[in-house]
Every structure is written in C-alpha cells, then in structure tokens.
Amino acid sequence: MTLLEHLRLWLAMTLPGWAAYVIPALVGIVVMLGFVLTMVIVLIWYERRLLGRFQIRLGPNRLGPEGIFQPLATALKVLLKEDIVPSKGDRIVHWLAPVVVFVPILLIFAVVPLWQGAVLADLNVGIFYVVAISSVSVVGVYMAGWGSNNKYALIAALRTVAQMVSYELPVVLSILGVVLMVGSLSMTAIVEAQSIPFILVQPLGFIIFFLGAVAEMNRCPFDLLEADSEIVAGYHIEYSGMKFAMFYLGEYGHALAYSCIIATLFLGGWQGPLLPPVVWFLVKIMAIFFIIVWMRSTLPRLRVDQLMAFAWKALLPMAIINLFAVAAEVLWLPQTLPWLPVAVNFAIAGVLIVLWSRLFSLGGGRVEV
Amino acid sequence: MTIALKGEEVARKIAESFAEAVAAVDRSTIVVNAGSLYQVAEFLKNTPGLDFDYLNNLTAVDYLDYLEVVYHLSSLKHNHSLTLKARCYEREKPTVPSVVSLWRAADYQEREVYDLMGIIFSGHPNLKRLFLWEGFPGHPLRRDYL
Amino acid sequence: MALKTEPIVLNIGPQHPSTHGVFRMKVTLDGEVVVDVEPVIGYLHRGIEKLAEGRTYTQNIPLTDRLDYLASMTNNLAYVLAVEKLAGIKVPERAEYLRVIMAEMMRISSHLMAVGFFLNDLGAMMTPVLYMWREREKIIDLFEMVCGQRLTYNYMRTGGVSQDIPEEFLPALKRFVAEMPGYIDEYDQLLAENEILLARTKGVGVLSRELAINIAASGPVLRASGVEFDIRRADPYSIYDRFDFDVPAGEAGDCYDRYRVRIQEMKQSVRILGQAIARLPGGEVCAEVPQLLRPPAGEVYGRIEAPKGELGFYLVSDNSIAPYRFHIRPPELINLTALKDMVVGWKVADLIIIFGSLDVCLGEIDR
Description:
The structure holds three protein chains of three kinds.
Chain A: H1 3-12, H2 17-54, H3 70-79, H4 91-108, H5 126-134, H6 136-147, H7 151-182, H8 187-192, H9 198-201, H10 203-216, H11 242-266, H12 277-298, H13 304-332, H14 340-359
Chain B: E1 3-4, H1 7-17, E2 22-25, E3 29-32, H2 37-46, E4 54-63, E5 66-75, E6 80-88, E7 95-97, H3 106-117, E8 120-122
Parallel strand pairs in B: 1-6, 3-6, 7-8
Antiparallel strand pairs in B: 2-3, 4-5, 5-6
Chain C: E1 8-12, E2 24-30, E3 33-40, H1 48-52, H2 61-65, H3 72-87, H4 93-122, H5 127-147, E4 156-157, E5 160-161, H6 169-192, H7 195-201, H8 209-214, H9 220-224, H10 231-234, H11 255-278, E6 298-306, E7 309-317, E8 325-329, H12 331-335, H13 339-343, H14 348-358, H15 362-366
Antiparallel strand pairs in C: 1-2, 2-3, 4-5, 6-7, 7-8
Helix pairs in contact in C: 3-4, 4-5, 4-11, 4-14, 5-6, 6-11, 11-14
C-alpha cells in the first residue's frame, strides 16, 4: 500500500468517492513534479560546477553563494528569448517535437519509489512501463530533426534514431537479469528484494545497463547527436526560447530518470543504515550522476559506426550471456547462500570483459550498412 | 645546408635537351621561355641527379614591362635548390602552361596567381578565383591596379 | 529492390565551431560518407601582400604578426631573416639566442593549442584544451614580460630584436623549462593509450609519403607521413646548427601520427630551450640598421620551420624603402591541397578530425 493509497482511504471517510480519488492524485503529481524540477535544477548546477572542477577551473560562482542561482538565471534567459521557427520547416512537427521528447521523461517518474511507499503509482509492471515510455522520446527527437528543415538536424536525428534503437536491446536484457532474480516487475518489489545490492550480485548487468543508459541519454561519449564540434548542436539547432528549454530540461530530466532507475535497480533504492531513506536515495542519485559527468568530461566521442558496433557486437552478446548466467543461477543455486551468485557473477564478468577487449577492438570494428 | 645550384650548369644541361628554352641565367636562377616551361619543368623533375620533386613556392611578380612567374624548386634527396622563372609579355591575357600535373603543390598557388595577378595557367583542372569572388573586376596585385 | 538514395550537399560554413577560423567546405555526403569536398576560402583575405608594398620594411613587421596569429614570433622571424639575407646584415650573438628562445617557446605554445583543439574536435569537451591552456598561459605571460603583448608580438627587428629581456624573465623561463617535460608526459599518458582516441584517429586520413612530397606538404604533416625533413636540420638558419635535437617522424601519415609528432616536437623544443638558456651570452640585442632601410636591388627567398610548416618569404627589392614584391609562402594553404584525397570515403565526423589534425589558421591561408 503506498502512502497515496493511505491518503485516499483516509479521505474517503469524509469526502465523496471522486474527490477522495482526485485529491491524492493531485498531491502526488505536485510532489513528483516538484521533486523532478527541483532535482533537475540542482543537477544543472551540480554538473556545471563539476565540469569546471574537472577542467581545473572554478565553474559558475558569481550568482549567489557558490553559484546556486546560475540555473535559475539560465532558465530565465531561455524563457525570455525569442521563439524562432524556420519558415520552411514543418510547423506542426516542429512545435510538437519538444513536447514528445519531454513528456515521456516526466511520465517515467510516476513509478520511481522515493522511499517505502512513496510512489505515485505502484504498477506491478513498473520497469516494463519505464522501458516502454522511454522509447517514445526517440520519435520526438526524429520529429525535431525533420521539422527544422536543416541538414545538420536531419543528420543528427537519423544518427540518434539508430543509436537509441540499438541501445534499447542491451538495456532491456540487463533489466531482465534483475527481474529474473527478483521475480517481479514492480519497482518497489525490486528494491525490497535487494538484501545485497544488485550491483554486487550482477556486476556485468550493471555495467551493461550503465553504458546503455548513458547512450540512451545521449551523453558523452555517446553524444554524437548533439556533437558540438561537428554538427553544431544536432537536433535542437533550430530551437530557441521555451522549446529549447524543454529540450535542455529534457536532457537533464532523462539523466535524472536513469539515475533514479539505476539507484532503484542496482543500488538498493532507499535502503541504507543510519540516515533517513530519502537522503540515501538522493545520495545514490548524486553519486551516479557524478560518474556520468566524470565520463563526459574525460572521454572523447565515438563515431557513429563505432558506436553501433559497440552496441551490437560487444554489449548485446555480453547481455545475452549475462541473462543466461543469471537464469542458470536462479534455477540451480540454492537460495540460502546469497553471496554465492556474487562470486560466480564477478568471475563471469571478469572473464567476459577481458575476452571481449581482446577480441573486439573498436579500431577495426565497423558495421557495414 | 641546402645548396643553391649554379644557374649556368643547369642551364647547360637543359640546353642539351631543349635548345631554345633558356632565355637568361642569373646566379641560381634560370629564366625560360613560357612556351617550353612545361618541358623544362618535367626535365628538372625527372632527371636523376637533379630530382626536383618539391615545389617550395610558386608566385608572380609584376615588372611593368612583363609579368614574371617564379618557381622555387628543391630536391629532398640531394638537398639542393633552384629558381625557375618564366616571363609573359602581354598584359591582356598572359598565358603560361600549368605544372599541376608534375607537382600538385601548384594547385592552389596557381589559382592564387590567377586571382590576384590575372595570369592564366593553361591545363589547370580548376582555374577559378581563390580569394575573391567570381566577377571581381580586375586583378588587385598588379602594379597598375590602384 | 534497391533503396533509392540521393547525396546531399552540406555546407560546413564559415561560422562553425570546428573550422578553426572562417573556412567553408562544401561537402557532398552520401548518407554519412563523404563523397566530395571543396574548400572555399577568402573570408579573411586582407590583401597583406599589396599593403606591404606601400610600407617600409620595418613597418611590415606588424603585418606579418597577423598572418598565423597563433605563432606570431616565428612569422616575424621568417620575415626579418629574409630581409637580413637581402640586405646582408649581421645579427649580434645575444639577439640570435634570444630569437631561438622566442621561436621555440612559440612552437610549444602553438602545438599545445593544436593538440588541445584537435582533442576538442574529437569530443573531449574542452577538458584537454583547458589543461593545455594552463601551460600556454605561462608561455604567454613570459611573452608579456618581454614585449608587452599576448598575441601579436612584433618583437623581432631587422638586425636583432626590439628590446632586451627583463631580469625576471630568465628565472621564470628556467622554472617553466624544468616543469614542462613533466606536463607533456602527463598529457601523453592520459591520451596516447586512450582506446577511443586510438579508434577515432588510427588509420584515419592517411597522407601517403609520395603524395605528401608531391603537394609540398611541410611541418608536422610532412614528418608524420614518414619524411624526416626539418628545415632547422636540412637548411639551418640563425644558429640552429649549434643545438642538439631530434627530428621526430611518424610512419603511417594518419591523424594519430600527426598528433604524436606534435607532442614529440614539444619535447624537443624544451630541449633546445634548455640549451639556449644555458649558453645565452651578453651583448647588444640589435645591429645598427638605418631607420629607412634600402636593401640593394635583388630578390631573396627566405624560409624557416614555423610550427605549422615551411613559412617562406619571397622579397623583391628595387633599392627603395618599401619592398617591390612581398610574397608569403603559406604552409597551411599548401598542406590543404590534399584534403580531398585524405577525406573522401570517411564519415562526417572523420572529416572534422582530419581537418583538425592539419591544424590550420585562416590568417595565413587567406592573408
């Protein structure tokens, strides 16, 4: 029973049925939106300061103490800019694209549990819903590229569709590994089943999911759809003003969503000693985001055919092997020794990664299209 | 040290194969007739012992009586250098054979000379203006331009 | 049934974050593969060669600053060397050593910028640029100590240099020379074995040895293709024959080799700097040259090994105070001749990297 359902039962005692249904929904939506938007602003600040520190400079520190009002200034600036629409572009598609990109990301947060029972909708197909919804953004990105009437945007959009579609498979397969161990698709059940965090039990699954998630988020080293140095700004090259703000927020919202999902699936959600559960959840999100920013500031970018080769020839086979290994463990290993799968999985992960790095070297890996 | 070859010796070698080619000789400079420029250049590039495979510089100078195209050649193997010149006496449409097929380095430099001096290089695959736009009146680097 | 495809013409226009200046390429793409590329230049053409015909020889020195504005010292050096050759002027010893010190510092600074922006084109998000900038700031501060300028130095004069170095210059330079090899090793370690860098640059944009010689490539581009030709070795100017340094060369002529050659040239420059500082003599810093110099009638082609290649000046004098003809041999324009050969068959992302590895500066191409 989630907290909102408790609220509904309590309200049903005094209010008519429909009000007792609508009010908790509204409360949940407001809290969730507030959480998302606040965290996105915090993440924008966090990323810019972190990038600065990685690049031996300070990062924004003028507006407010340590620059905490910088994201607000960015938001204000973007809101006040003129909204330019290319005259020969497809107007409806151009207008709809930011919406189609941004809204599914918001929808993902409906099933993310902040702490025990604090989830907007405890679907029993939680993680399946997440995977399904996040693939809708791909269509939005393609719409943005098409509606801009710009060759750079078109190239970027086509690259993105290829990339996001290819990386869905390893992501889904590594999620399946987790689901097999837990036995349920519901997010709350996944967290509760983690007496040992799944990052230890399935290291290979974690690595594959992490890399696939970074690719889904279009972040460096897989950020060729907004490659600043090649196609200037990729699919949002012709957007300005509020629409650009939606893409920008969408990118950080996506990062937040995937950080939350990684925290839920692999790091044990809100579990942890001493501190209140919400704080643990936030700490885990920030830790994952730190690693994502670290990767962004250090690694150069992959080329599109190398990226696809990496997805299809490296991540996908490893994900399939991981799935079979987990299935075998669930079937045959006794439940009383929870640390045994850890050892077995670490061994398998080590062997596979070493084997693949020997056999598959990106210098020669090409996908012939 | 890169040795600058003596003009007279090389002129003698050229005169053995191409009788009327050399017009004048200075310390390390050979002036050839514009018509036989391509043959002399080919001779300089392909003769063993001369082997001028590196075109350092290609430019043109406007002495008001004539326009002179200057080629600075050198050989990486023997580490010697030579200056080759060709003169055009018309100012309306001065023409000189192109050496792009011998040294591709001449590609952009000949286009630049055409753009700024107006000398036409016959045989150049893509003789368009390089810096200025098509339709620019005149050739700015000539001495009588402004 | 075969899929009907159509090539598109993409304009990587004069305003672009990665064209290192105002450079335009008309690229014909078949999907992502480059089929044809046509460079269009002239957006920064200022007519320097014509301007120089109306200025005296000394007034032309600031004009040469603005050619490859990221390596002004070596531009100045090439020009004054050509004028001195034309007029037969002898330069005092201290001035020669100071010139070598400035030229080698300039080479390090230019290569730092080239490598940093090459990695930025690869997508490493300004981080390598800012690390290399740390060292470049120290070099630029040293230059500011000497001549007061940070970008266009106007330091060399016919017959020497314009002013002597202040006292705090040599200790600061010695500190810099002591710690620089450590930094270069740090960059080398971080980047040379990076898998993504190797995958993006090895074998990409190969310039074969024969083609490199035929297009008269020079500088790191020529040396990366396997030709060990350095003007400081083959045709020494100034006092370079007194210094002990190696000439690094690559083998394959791909982008990775061009990057490695630049890193190793930085190490050699630090070596030369150490030797030059140790032997710096006293004395005057400029020969007695008349203010309105009239070189005897004649012509000269003087060339040096600039960071980007062979920078040559062809000067024709008619015994007046201004040159009759002032021609600059631009190393980068000539290196660009083979752009189409290097790029056709690769993808858009590779086009940007190959162009970045050539390390162009539009001031010199367009003049």
